[in-house]
Amino acid sequence: MKTITATELARNLSAVLDRLAVEREEIVIERNHRQVARLIPGPGRLTALQALADLYRALPEDAGAAWEADSRASALQDERLPKGVRNPWAS
Could you tell me which CATH class the domain 2-39 is placed in? Predict the structure, then answer.
C-alpha cells in the first residue's frame, strides 16, 4: 500500500490515477500526517469469455445443451433475428 500526501495527489492526479489503474495497488492519502482517504482500484475489465465463464453453473444441464443446439442450428441456417422486441412474459 502506497501513501501520498494530499498535495502530491493534487499536483499529480493524472499520474496517480494511471498508477492506480496499472499497478492495481491501494493508495492512502494523508493530510497533516493523518489518513484522510484511500483510493482503491476499480474492478478490472473482463472479456466476454471470462464474464460468462460460470454461466454453466447457473443453467440446468439440459437448458445449456438445448441453447447450444439451437445456436448451432441457427448459425448453420443463417437465420436472422426477428426485428422488434418480444415480451418474454407474454403467454
Answer: alpha beta
- Distance between alpha carbon 29 and the CA centroid of its chain, in Å? 26
Question: Looking only at Cα atoms, what is the longest distance across the chain?
Answer: 69
What would the DSSP string read from start to end of 53-70?
A: TTHHHHS-HHHHHHHHHH
Hey, where are the domains in the chain? 2-39, 48-77
pLDDT digits (tens, 9 = 90+) for 25-68: 899 999 999 999 999 998 878 788 887 777 767 777 787 778 77
pTM above 0.70, yes or no: no
What are the backbone angles phi and psi of residue 9, rounded to the nearest 5°? -65, -45
DSSP assignment, residue 1? -
